[in-house]
Design brief:
two-stranded antiparallel ribbon, metal-binding, alpha+beta, zinc ion binding, 283 residues, Double Stranded RNA Binding Domain, 20 strands, 37% helix, 10 helices, zinc
């Protein structure tokens, strides 16, 4: 059929026909076999809106297998398209193709205003905003706009009137202001102790409830506090993330490092004892 040009599979909605019949879905219905072209079925999702590909990791669905496969790689991290020149690998063939332009020195995307060239169309698109003044990334909190999404991500529109510290969200500023005002609206009903955040109150209540929320994956021990849990994990892993800058010795927690430093400073700062030479002789 590929030579004759025959296209026997026709869409009932728009009349578009397809020639490939190598991929068939065969469904048994009573005593008959109904053969449906896979390509025709996929095409008809344009008209039906059916999204047959459901992601097992999140609620997203897809019409096309290629979009589905690419999305799966966002979850799995799989990069099946390696570059044959450098160690980089990519999630789809188009990304690899664009990357190869770097090695080949190709810059096929040229600015129509200043003639500057780029290896990727996305770089040209971002560059064009210099000329057009387009700022498509808008802060929903203050209305300020940016040329790049990364600039919006770094933007912190909420600033403390007391110390000038800035925050991305109003909740961060609200919690911070309690450092200045001393407000502690979350009170423990058992002992009356109050806290700036509800999360801190929840942690504190473990003192009264006895809940040990942190379970060691290596042994049966459980812990109330994250700090105790993290220290215990290091007994299993051997991790010693706190390093003395003076001698390079490492420790499992900050208190051990602090004691080490204090001990060292005592040795260094201790005055030498002025002991006179022993002139007496024992016979």
């Amino acid at each position: 059929m590929s030579h004759s040009g025959e296209k026997p599979y026709k869409c009932l909605e728009c009349g578009k026909a397809f020639k490939r019949s190598s991929l068939l879905q065969v469904r048994c219905q009573t005593k008959f076999h109904i053969c449906i072209s896979f390509h025709l079925q996929v095409h008809q999702s344009v008209h039906t809106g059916v999204r047959t590909f459901l992601c097992p990791y999140c609620p997203l669905t897809f019409k096309w297998s290629s979009h589905y496969q690419y999305h799966l790689r966002q979850h799995t991290g799989e990069c099946p398209y390696p570059c044959d020149t450098c160690p980089k690998a990519f999630k789809n063939s188009s990304s690899l193709r664009r990357h190869k332009n770097v090695h080949l020195g190709l810059k096929p995307y040229t600015c129509s205003v200043c003639n500057k060239s780029f290896t990727q169309s996305t770089n040209l698109r971002q560059h064009m905003r210099i000329h057009t003044g387009e700022r498509p990334y808008i802060c929903c909190e203050c209305g300020r706009s940016f040329t790049h999404s990364s600039n919006l991500a770094l933007h912190k529109p909420y600033r403390c009137s007391e110390c000038g510290k800035a925050f991305k969200g109003s909740s961060g500023l609200k919690y911070h202001m309690r450092d200045h005002t001393g407000e502690r609206p979350y009170r423990c009903t058992e002992c009356g102790k109050s806290f700036k955040r509800s999360s801190l109150l929840s942690i504190h209540q473990r003192v009264h409830t006895g809940v040990r929320a942190f379970q060691c994956p290596h042994c049966p021990l459980t812990f109330k506090w994250s700090s105790h849990y993290q220290y215990h994990l290091r007994q299993h892993t051997g991790e010693r993330p706190y390093v003395c800058k003076e001698c390079g010795k490492s420790f499992k927690n900050t208190s051990c490092l602090r004691r080490h430093r204090n001990h060292g400073s005592l040795i260094v700062s201790q005055p030498a004892l002025n002991i006179p030479p022993n002139t007496s002789q024992n016979y």
